[in-house]
Write a structure and sequence with these properties.
Oligomer: single chain
Number of strands: 17
Largest sheet: 9 strands, mixed
Distance between the termini: 55 Å
Shape: elongated
Strand content: 15-25%
Structural class: alpha/beta
Helix content: 25-40%
Number of helices: 13
Order of helices and strands: HEEEEEEEEEHEHEHEHEHHEEHEHEHHHH
């Protein structure tokens, strides 16, 4: 009831505000220039006449010599120079809170699932500052994800942020769906940024399922939507996650994909006149990434465990966005195309994947188990070509011998069906039995 009254009061205050209007002076590419009105960067304007089908919201992204550069939160079809522009005199906000659980919304927080509008939900600023560094809790406890290879060899902590790095079609979205259904977190928030329209329903119904959706909030901005909406979807999902974190909940925020967020910012930056820098990405892209990623992590209460997929360009894991994201995040999971073509799912290359908080969220015995399997896998990788051509002599390396003998069992442990969820305790027990056959462990 309190939230409903707050919403009614906010709408009454908005209705009582004096209208401050200007005019659209030019439209070039994605950018709209507005004159005759004063507004701050981040404020929302309405472009077009009230009741007109072409009327759209736009966000102020730059101010120069009394003119406003705005990026529309929609398509510009039908908007003409001379159209009125009305200031809202308030920063962008989105609906947040428990009312969003089980809902699918767009980048503006409007329902896409045919359910009731979220008029009574409290609203939170779209652009919020991260918690102060010295006020954050430490990442000190593990968070089970339901995926054996991750929970044992690349363990996640509550409040960690890590990336899933892979090229296209290697299984990033499927791995996210497994995590959404198997995570031990209280709430899952998923941001589908720049996805193909046909894949959204498939992901919701086939991959996530009714059970996963019931404790999730899904924010969708498809690839055909305006770049401001694609960027805003990432911000909206982060703001929703922050609202649950501030209530004391442990939240998993999954964003697919961080690369498309960066691409949206590239379109925005180039449209307002920024110079292209590394591979065409303007400086604002590399300023955006830490601002967005630092909002996740542990808070004063609660936590946001951030999982961001990174679409590496041409399978080059050192391309600018992947390299920048890897330097900010607390770990990285690498997916391998060769494993995908071999039918090995999930396609996690455990030797190239690293969790920077593993030492804080696992025991000494657990780390010994993981080290045993990693050591044997590394020895097998180094000797793989010799084994394939028959040049390896059994007995030359005990780790290689153990890997060859136990390779079917190792692959059975690392493989997992998309519908199979393994609790972390069970995954560690399975790894202990496997490590015993490899001659190592606790």
């Amino acid at each position: 009831m309190r939230d409903v009254l707050r919403g009614q009061v906010d709408r009454a205050v908005d209705a009582a505000r004096p209208l401050v209007s200007g005019r659209v002076s030019s439209i070039v590419g994605l950018s709209v220039e507005v004159s005759g009105i004063a507004a701050a960067v981040g404020e929302t304007l309405w472009l077009g006449r009230a009741g007109d089908a072409a009327r759209i919201p736009a966000e102020v992204v730059a101010v120069e010599d009394g003119r406003l550069r705005c990026l529309p939160l929609g398509h510009l079809t039908g908007l003409a120079a001379g159209a009125p522009a009305v200031a809202t005199r308030r920063p962008s906000t989105v609906p947040v809170g428990p009312a969003l659980l089980g809902r699918v919304v767009d980048a503006l927080g409007n329902p896409l699932d045919g359910g009731p509008p979220l008029l009574g939900a409290p609203r939170s600023p779209l652009h919020a500052a991260p918690p102060p560094a010295l006020s954050r809790q430490r990442v000190a406890s593990p968070l089970g994800l339901g995926v054996r290879a991750l929970d044992t060899l690349v363990p996640a902590g509550r409040g960690q942020r890590f990336g899933i790095f892979a090229g296209s079609g290697v299984g990033k979205s499927s791995l996210l769906s497994m995590i959404a259904r198997g995570t031990a977190a209280d709430v899952s928030v998923l941001a589908l940024v720049g996805e193909r329209g046909r894949e959204v329903r498939e992901f919701l119904e086939d991959d996530l399922g009714a059970e996963g959706l019931a404790r999730s909030v899904v924010v969708v901005a498809t690839s055909d939507e305006a770049p401001m909406l694609r960027l805003r979807a990432a911000m909206t999902a982060t703001a929703v996650s922050e609202s649950f974190r501030d209530l004391g909940a442990d939240v998993v925020l999954m964003m697919d994909s961080l690369t498309r967020v960066a691409m949206a910012q590239r379109e925005i930056g180039l449209s307002v006149g920024e110079p292209p820098a590394t591979r065409g990405y303007p400086p604002s892209v590399f300023a955006l990434l830490p601002r967005l990623l630092e909002r996740a992590g542990p808070g004063v209460v609660g936590s946001i465990t951030g999982i961001y997929t990174v679409l590496v360009d041409g399978d080059d894991h050192n391309e600018p966005i992947a390299d920048s994201a890897r330097s900010i995040l607390d770990g990285h999971v690498v997916l391998d195309r060769k494993l995908a073509t071999a039918g090995h799912f999930p396609t996690i290359d455990v030797l190239d994947s690293v969790s920077r908080v593993a030492g804080r969220v696992t025991s000494k015995e657990q780390r010994a188990l993981a080290t045993t399997l990693r050591r044997v896998l590394a020895a097998h990788r180094d000797a793989k070509e010799l084994i394939e051509v028959g040049a390896y002599q059994p007995g030359a390396n005990p780790d290689v011998d153990a890997a060859v003998a136990a390779l079917p069992a190792i692959n059975a442990f690392l493989r997992q069906d998309i519908d199979e969820i393994t609790p972390a305790e069970q995954a560690w027990a399975q790894l202990a039995r496997l490590a015993a056959t490899l001659g190592g462990g606790a």
